[in-house]
Amino acid sequence: MSEEAPAKKELAAVxxxxxxxxxxxxxxxxxxxxxxxxxxxxxxxxxRAPVLEYTExxxxxxGATSDVVVKEMYTFIDKGGRSVTLRPEYTPSVARxxxxxxxxxxPAPLRFYYMGPMFRYxxxxxxxxxxxxxxxxxxxxxxxxxxxxxxxxxxxALLSRLxxxxxxxxxxxxxxxxxxxxxxxxxRAAAGAKRAVLCPDCQRKIETNPLRIFxxxxxxxxxxxxxxxxxxDHLCPECRDHFDRFRxxxxxxxxxxxxxxxxVRGLDYYTKTAFEIVTTKLGSQNAICxxxxxxxxMKEFGGPDIxxxxxxxxxxxLLAVADITVDRGKFxxxxxxxxxxxxxxxxxxxxxxxxxxxxxxxxxxRGLKAHLGRASKLEASWVLIxxxxxxxxxxxxxxxxxxxxxxVGTPEDLIRTVNGDA
Length: 422
Ligand code: HAM
Prior knowledge:
Layout: H1 22-41, E1 45-46, E2 52-54, H2 55-63, H3 67-71, E3 74-77, E4 83-86, H4 91-100, E5 110-119, E6 131-140, H5 145-161, E7 167-173, H6 180-193, H7 200-208, H8 219-226, H9 237-253, E8 258-259, E9 271-279, E10 287-293, H10 297-300, E11 308-314, H11 315-321, E12 332-336, H12 339-354, E13 359-360, H13 368-377, E14 382-386, H14 388-393, E15 396-400, E16 406-409, H15 411-418
Parallel strand pairs: 1-5, 7-8, 12-13, 12-14
Antiparallel strand pairs: 2-4, 3-4, 5-6, 6-11, 7-9, 9-10, 10-11, 14-15, 15-16
Helix pairs in contact: 1-5, 2-4, 5-9
Histidyl-adenosine monophosphate (HAM) binds near residues 90, 313 and 314.
């Protein structure tokens, strides 16, 4: 090592990002397996889009007035002079991929899911990271509100599979192109009358997107917003009917929910249904899941006029409240005694692995006692002893660590023993 080793801080992970260490990876893998296992039961299939997209995708999709686009994007100019962005969310990427690959020509509805990292330059705190991971679900081409309820029910199926209790489901309708302009005008007037008490950010939102005022966490703004007209009182007949039928479907599934007319979600594209699943266990970053309809995104991207709905769950928040027990799994440790035994151990390990048995081979020369001590420390399930006599005889002792039972046999016999078909 050089005398001037870099300060520890310079080698730290980027602020707001985290290493997922081997001890935690088991829980991630178990959650990922539960995601696949749950969503595929409903006919959803995985679609993997790139981490990097042209910036305009999010400006157009996520919305130019959303906090995500205004304040939080990791955007830079690439070597070709194009502005690119590390995706802050996944929804616009799926819409783009559908248009680009003409997946819309397949019979609707299209049901997709995905899991992967997202990036938002927000102030890091517990439950809020700059690189975080989402589980994302998107459906295209189904306007029936039964699908809105299907994805909420599917989110709950996943949560219950992962042992997440104590959640609350909040639902709202944010209207559509037909009813929103009228509501915006009412909201602008009400917010304009309270301009003096609103924060500078919310004052700006009066002009840009008054719905966003409901997102503000500052007490004076929240107090003012409590007296603003409610969107649910100003829905057009189509949106009202959609909202009624969505709630009736949730009742059918027996999913308790609360209508929250201030739930507008932080992204600009929502139409009609908006929902969030929050937990009582996570303090201020309590939203585990958020989603809704975005019936206009595809046509605004210049693609076909196809309605859509989806949600995303934050993996870190999910894991913080999930009840997952991870089993390391059984494995065999080979104790080799001597040079020739070590060479034989290498081919024996290969034979065991080909039979589907996890086999750990360490190359350090050790005596039997040291090998057994090491195997026990590593919590090996079995130890295979390979010494000169065993090699000559072609038969090896296999010790089951939990019971201390020893069996002697050929590698084929022992593979059967380990695999439970002896
Ligand atoms: P979102 O509400 O921005 O929606 O994010 C969804 C979830 O991602 C949140 O409920 C939260 O659990 C998690 N999350 C968001 N930001 C962070 C962060 N900085 N750190 C940790 N977790 C975070 C969307 O992203 C939409 N694309 C959802 C959607 C899909 N709507 C329709 N389709």
